[in-house]
């Protein structure tokens, strides 16, 4: 999109927004608001259609690797540490290996001191193994003279002999024919322990085919040509082993003493293997690499995830619409219009800033649908109260938006704090969720505070809406909730103990591959095909590693998706993932629609666990500090303890229901923290308002009254947030289920704790410390009024 157009439209939107906020003229506010909404909506839809949202590896298909460089060893045997130049050299070599002709969509970036993130969208499943080889194989080329009595010496060593000093036994590399069948083992040779010549003498390597088959030709540089001819002159008639990464490729006889700067490697190559070896030899790595994490997804599996996400978003939107229209009637319909515009702005923002959409990001959009109407419910419950107090619809509407703003702003700011921290500490797919969560929160504020209000202005000013009727779910009655608090707190302690007990019993089995390493393969069964789990189990029993060791038993699970298909999940060791994926595609090719392989090393898993704990701690501290600035200490303390209650209880309950903790769960826990605070803030805001109003009765009575006043809102926002999550829970793929389960549990706990945990703790703290909540709240209110008066006086003095 043209940068000038984007700048002009963005400037226009900003000016209209500032004008809308600043003006107090009703008609002007309505017209400016309408222009702002139309411009934002049209620009968002245009951007989304013409620019589009970039898709992540898990939706577009392809491979993503995090590789770590190991220290190298020089010719004298000294260890060379990995530094910035080593990383840059490795990236340059990988660029040549993975994208030799420059046509692939390859991106690489350093991570830390010794890691590289490699992303290759669009890679086909049949290319995954080739990509892994090109990344990991060092391609250290060596030429070593073979012992004249190699076969007999090898026999002596195999029989228990000591061998011969200065010589070492090396095996021939395994070979395969064009059909992929393993050829007979060629045995081993006894070669010199120290290389006669290394690969630094090779100037160029390329594959070619002649009457004998595929071969790799080597063009040597000046020094390499001299060394090679010198070796040939001394060892003419003997075998010279050509060795790559410690395995003999071939051991031809030196027929002449002058080779003219060329050498040939032969050995039953296929076209693919000869091209691959030539590419590797021309671009050898100085530092060995290990793949610490991998995410490989076929394009068909990614498209299936997009389809499922679309169905789930539509289903969530339909359920939310039905609920809002049932409870709030016309006002509910207006809220849904705001939600639709909210989604348009969300998609437009992602397209404009080119934020990548991932599978967790789709889950974030589904969550946005449920949480976006939360602010509307809060406003509408206020609107109901103001109309019951005898105000006109227009007057009640202004009062409702004004009184609800504080709670809406505080609750969304705390959730945004959690989302920012999640964005900062996470990477890859989970970061996609953080992006959609932040954009969703910002766009939902626009939808609730601007879009719905402007629509109300139009329908009221034009006489289309003169009164507003809603269904009252909770009767206007004050319940003595605080008197039952000890029972609920005891119940919470029991459930928390069960949650921690479950984690203790399961031990490391509570954690998924993100934290303890391993592989997780998802296989989507093709439509109309049957792939029994028993067949998969039988195939897994016969799989072995390259050294002949069995991969062992791999747990197999099955789940239905929103598109009606089945997804098989197979958990295994880190090294076994690629083997299982290849075997599944080979044995059940016609029954498989797509695959997704995620692999994480133990080191990066332990680092992820540490980072996640730090992120949760930092989020809780920042939320507590913000609440401390906005509320009295007793309220901030009660809110954070209730938040701990919700966050600490969720992991054990998820494990109890059969899940393993993953990075997606960390994102869910941070979201739960925001949602829990959201509910609690609304209750606390009403408690402070009730105290400031100067109501009669004890502090317990005033708190009970405030809790019951917000009870309808608290119980109504639960279903709106839960409806899309329930759809995700039952119809999403396994990755989406990982997110839906903790969010569902967290929403229920957040609703519960805001009523039965947070407020009783505030009262308990006040009673134990002798703090007068009434006095503290009134002092804070008086200070705020003085500050507002001072600002107003300053503006008046400046003639503003």
- Helical percentage: 55-70%
First CA to last CA: what distance? 40 Å
pLDDT averaged residue by residue: 83
- Count of β-strands: 19
Our count of helices gives 26
Structure commentary:
This protein is of the alpha+beta class. Helix content is 60%, strand content 14%. The strands form five sheets. Strands 4-5-1-15-19-16-18-17 form an eight-stranded antiparallel beta sheet, with helices on both faces. Strands 9-6-12-13 form a four-stranded antiparallel beta sheet. A three-stranded antiparallel beta sheet has the order 10-11-14. It is elongated and about 110 Å long. The two termini are 40 Å apart.
Quick tags:
alpha+beta, 14% strand, 19 strands, 800 residues, 60% helix, elongated, 8-stranded antiparallel sheet
Q: What is the topology?
A:
Blueprint: H1 3-22, H2 26-50, H3 57-60, E1 62-69, E2 72-73, E3 79-80, H4 84-98, E4 107-111, E5 115-121, H5 128-136, E6 141-145, H6 150-158, E7 167-171, E8 188-192, E9 197-198, E10 202-210, E11 213-220, H7 222-235, E12 240-244, E13 247-250, E14 262-269, H8 271-282, E15 289-297, H9 299-328, H10 330-352, H11 359-372, H12 374-388, H13 393-425, H14 428-461, H15 485-506, H16 513-516, E16 518-525, H17 533-541, E17 556-560, E18 566-572, H18 576-587, E19 592-600, H19 602-630, H20 633-656, H21 663-692, H22 699-709, H23 711-731, H24 734-756, H25 758-769, H26 773-797
Antiparallel strand pairs: 1-5, 1-15, 2-3, 4-5, 6-9, 6-12, 7-8, 10-11, 11-14, 12-13, 15-19, 16-18, 16-19, 17-18
């Amino acid at each position: 999109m043209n940068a000038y157009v984007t700048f002009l439209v963005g400037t226009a939107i900003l000016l209209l927004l500032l004008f809308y906020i600043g003006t107090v003229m009703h008609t002007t506010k309505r017209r400016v608001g309408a222009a702002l909404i139309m411009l934002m909506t049209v620009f968002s839809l245009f951007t989304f259609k013409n620019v589009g949202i970039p898709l992540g590896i898990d939706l577009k298909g392809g491979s993503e690797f995090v590789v770590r460089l190991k220290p190298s060893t020089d010719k004298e045997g000294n260890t060379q540490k990995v530094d910035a130049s080593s990383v840059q050299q490795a990236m340059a070599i990988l660029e040549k290996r993975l994208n030799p002709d420059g046509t692939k969509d390859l991106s690489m970036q350093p991570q830390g001191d010794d890691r590289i993130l490699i992303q290759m969208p669009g890679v086909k499943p049949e290319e995954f193994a080739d990509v892994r080889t090109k990344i990991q194989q060092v391609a250290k080329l060596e030429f070593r003279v073979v012992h004249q009595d190699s076969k007999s010496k090898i026999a002596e060593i195999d029989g228990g002999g000591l061998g011969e000093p200065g010589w070492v036994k090396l095996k021939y590399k395994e070979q395969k024919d064009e059909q992929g069948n393993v050829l007979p083992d060629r045995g081993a040779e006894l070669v010199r322990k120290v290389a006669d010549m290394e690969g630094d003498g090779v100037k160029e390597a390329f594959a070619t085919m002649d009457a004998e088959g595929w071969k790799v030709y080597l063009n040597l540089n000046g020094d390499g040509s001299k060394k090679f001819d010198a070796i040939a002159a001394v060892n003419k008639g003997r075998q010279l082993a050509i060795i790559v990464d410690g395995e003999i490729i071939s051991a031809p006889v030196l027929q002449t003493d002058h080779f003219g700067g060329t050498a040939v490697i032969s050995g039953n190559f296929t076209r693919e293997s000869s091209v691959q070896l030539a590419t590797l030899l021309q671009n050898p790595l100085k530092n060995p690499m290990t793949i610490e994490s991998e995410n490989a997804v076929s394009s068909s599996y990614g498209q299936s995830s997009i389809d499922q996400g679309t169905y789930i978003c539509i289903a969530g939107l339909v359920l939310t619409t039905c609920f809002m229209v049932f409870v709030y009637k016309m006002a509910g319909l207006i809220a849904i219009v705001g939600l639709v515009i909210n989604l348009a702005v969300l998609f437009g923002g992602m397209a404009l800033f080119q934020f990548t959409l991932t599978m967790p990001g789709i889950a974030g959009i589904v969550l946005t649908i449920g949480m976006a109407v939360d602010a509307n419910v809060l406003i509408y419950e206020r609107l109901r109260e103001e109309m019951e107090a005898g105000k006109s619809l227009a007057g009640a509407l202004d009062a409702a938006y004004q009184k609800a703003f504080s709670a809406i702003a505080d609750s969304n700011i705390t959730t945004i704090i959690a989302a920012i921290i999640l964005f900062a500490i996470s990477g890859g797919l989970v970061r996609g969720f953080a992006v959609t969560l932040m954009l969703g929160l910002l766009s939902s504020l626009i939808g609730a505070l601007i879009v719905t209000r402007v629509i109300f202005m139009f329908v009221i000013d034009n006489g289309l809406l003169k009164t507003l009727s809603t269904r009252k779910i909770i009767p206007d009655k004050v319940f003595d909730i605080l008197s039952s608090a000890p029972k609920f707190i005891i119940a919470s302690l029991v459930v928390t103990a069960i949650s921690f007990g479950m984690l203790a019993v399961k031990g490391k089995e509570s954690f998924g591959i993100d934290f303890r390493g391993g592989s997780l393969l998802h296989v989507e069964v093709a439509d109309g095909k049957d792939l029994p789990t028993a067949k998969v189990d039988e195939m897994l029993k016969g799989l072995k590693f390259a050294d002949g060791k069995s991969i062992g038993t791999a747990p197999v699970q099955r789940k239905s998706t929103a598109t009606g298909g089945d997804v098989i999940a197979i958990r295994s060791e880190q090294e076994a993932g690629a083997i299982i994926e290849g075997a599944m595609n080979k044995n059940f090719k016609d029954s498989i629609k797509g695959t997704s392989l995620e692999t994480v090393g133990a080191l990066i898993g332990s680092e992820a666990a540490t980072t996640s704990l730090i992120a949760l701690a930092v989020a809780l501290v920042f939320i507590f500090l913000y609440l401390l600035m906005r509320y009295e200490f007793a309220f901030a303390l009660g809110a954070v303890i209730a938040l701990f209650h919700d966050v600490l209880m969720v992991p054990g309950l998820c494990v109890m229901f059969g899940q393993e903790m993953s990075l997606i769960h960390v994102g869910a826990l941070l979201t739960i923290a925001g949602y829990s605070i959201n509910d609690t803030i609304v209750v606390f805001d009403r408690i402070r308002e009730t105290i400031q109003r100067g109501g009669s009765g004890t502090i317990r009575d005033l708190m009970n009254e405030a809790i019951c006043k917000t009870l309808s809102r608290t119980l109504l926002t639960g279903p709106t947030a839960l409806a899309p999550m329930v759809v995700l829970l039952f119809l999403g793929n396994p990755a989406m289920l990982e997110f839906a389960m903790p969010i569902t549990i967290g929403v229920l706990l957040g609703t519960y704790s805001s009523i039965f945990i947070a407020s009783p703790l505030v009262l308990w703290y006040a009673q134990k410390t002798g703090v007068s909540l009434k006095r503290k709240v009134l002092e804070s209110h008086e200070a705020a009024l003085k500050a507002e008066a001072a600002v107003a006086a300053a503006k008046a003095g400046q003639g503003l």
